[in-house]
Structures are given as C-alpha cells and as structure tokens.
Specification:
By secondary structure, this protein is α/β, with parallel strands linked by helices. The protein contains ten helices and six strands, in the order ααααβαβββααβαβαα. β2 (113-117) and β3 form a beta hairpin. The model is unreliable at 1-5 (pLDDT under 50).
Length: 278
C-alpha cells in the first residue's frame, strides 16, 4: 500500500489550529482550560472555524504531544540560535500535588516522587524538568524525570536519546552547576565531543572558565523564571503523566515560538513575552 488512509470525518479544528489555540492559552496566562475556552468562545471565534468543548480539547491536546515536541524542534532549528554551540542545562521542580491524600490518589503515583528545591529551600512532590538550551533561551532538548533520579543520569540519558544531534555538532560547551560534577560524566561528554564547564567543588582547584560562570548561570535561571513566572509552569493542573507532559510541552512551545518570532523580527530582547501576553 502506498500510505495510510485516514478513516472517518476530518476534525473540525485542524491540528495546526489546535496547537495555535494551546500556544495562545499559555501566552495569555490561562492555566485553567475551562476558563480559556470560555474566553476563546467569547473573543476568538473569528480566528478558529470551531472551538471544542473542554473534554474534547483536553483529549486532543494530550494526543498531540508528539506534534508539539516536533514543533519545538522545528522552530528551534529555524532560528539563528540553533547554531550556538554553547549550551546551558539545569533542572527545575514541576510540583504535581501538595497534600498527602492527593499524592496517594494521584495518577502520577509511581512516576512522580519527592524532591528538594535548593533555590527555594523547600520539598515538593512531582517531577523535575530538565532543559538544555542556548544562552538566548532557545530549547535544544528537554525531559521530565522523577526527582529521585540523579541529575547526571538524566542528562546522560537525554544526550543518548538525541545522540544524532550531538554527533552533528562540533565544539559544544555545556555549562552546568555543581550538581552535574562527575568524572565519569565528564569523560563520557568528552567522548561525545562536549566540553563540560562547571563551578569547582570544595577542595577542588579553580576550573577553566569559572570566573565567567556566574553571569552565564543566571541565564538559565532567567529561562526557568520565564516558564514559571510568565507561563505558569507550576500551575499546569496535570493529574496524569500524559497531562503533565503536554502542559509542560505547551509552555515550552509557547516560549520557543516567542523567541523564534522575536529572532525573525529583530526584537532586541529575544525571550520577551510582553508583545504576546495581552
């Protein structure tokens, strides 16, 4: 057979329309899907041929995770920042429950776990978002993981999954914090052609390039601040792994789309969402 034939009627809202609706939701700060659809039905009916009900929107959005991931990569590769060989990586908490009963009843039981957020000096229950991006904030790769899994193990797995991307690059410098310090990891990165730049630990002599790290490290904190402060990452509302994954991807795509558009229009502050949040 020459290809796969779609059976049934085509959806009233196309996949591209669905993704546009999801990105607009994230940019305009509607973490509640029901509130967002009420707003869209009142103000955006002229922009979309059809607006689904809450259940249909949620179901289609969860099934569109693969498409959203692909769009993040396609927008990234269509920007000047894709060719930047300086990468920054860090992880940030994605809380998924606040009370003990919620944790016990959650569909994320067995996948999420308890972790500690050093920057806010608090424990949380949920997942951690690992993001590898350029200094401009353009995502290169990302993943969600149980907070009990070590940062080094998650980073190594991400680079293994995207081995083709890493092999196609030369002279990549990966900037991390002390949590990624490991001689085996550093050796494995070197074998992949990646130079690790991180702060020195106690009783370790100052490493090459360390004086410039503090300023650069603030960039990834700023990226996480955009995801949490402007795109409400911690108010995702997901109750299953599929629900959390698509809501995180939705916010990463919204940030990626803004950076991509700012890059193509020559906006000085490439990660600014000011033009899109109202």
């Amino acid at each position: 057979m020459g290809g796969t034939r779609c059976i049934g009627r085509p959806p009233l809202l196309s996949d591209s329309g669905l993704v546009c609706l999801a990105v607009a939701q994230a940019l305009l700060g509607y973490h509640s899907e029901s509130r967002w659809l009420r707003y869209a039905n009142k103000h955006l009916t002229g922009m979309f041929p059809y607006l689904p009900q809450h259940a249909g929107y949620n179901k289609r959005l969860r099934s569109a995770l693969g498409l959203v991931k692909r769009l993040i990569r396609e927008l990234a590769t269509d920007s000047d920042f894709w060719f930047d060989n300086h990468w920054i990586t860090d992880s940030t908490p994605v809380p998924c429950g606040m009370s003990r009963p919620t944790v016990q009843r959650s569909g994320l039981a067995g996948l999420a776990g308890y972790g500690y957020c050093a920057s806010h000096s608090r424990f949380f229950w949920g997942l951690r978002l690992y993001l590898v991006c350029t200094p401009a904030g353009m995502p290169i790769m990302w993943a969600l993981a149980n907070p009990k899994i070590g940062e080094r193990e998650v980073l190594a797995a991400m680079l293994e999954v995207d081995a083709g991307l890493v092999a196609a690059r030369e002279g990549v410098v990966l900037i991390t914090d002390k949590g990624f310090a490991s001689k085996p990891l550093e050796k494995a990165l070197a074998e992949q052609g990646i130079a690790l730049l991180r702060p020195s630990r106690k009783r370790e002599k100052q490493r090459y390039g360390e004086p410039m790290l503090k300023k650069v490290r603030q960039l990834i904190e700023s990226v996480n601040g955009t995801l949490k402060g402007q795109l409400d990452l911690e108010r995702h509302g997901g109750r299953t792994i599929e629900g959390v994954a698509i809501r995180v991807a939705q916010r990463i795509l919204a940030m990626t789309a803004a950076i991509w558009h700012n890059n193509h229009t020559g906006t000085p502050t490439t990660r600014s969402l000011t033009a899109y949040d109202h």
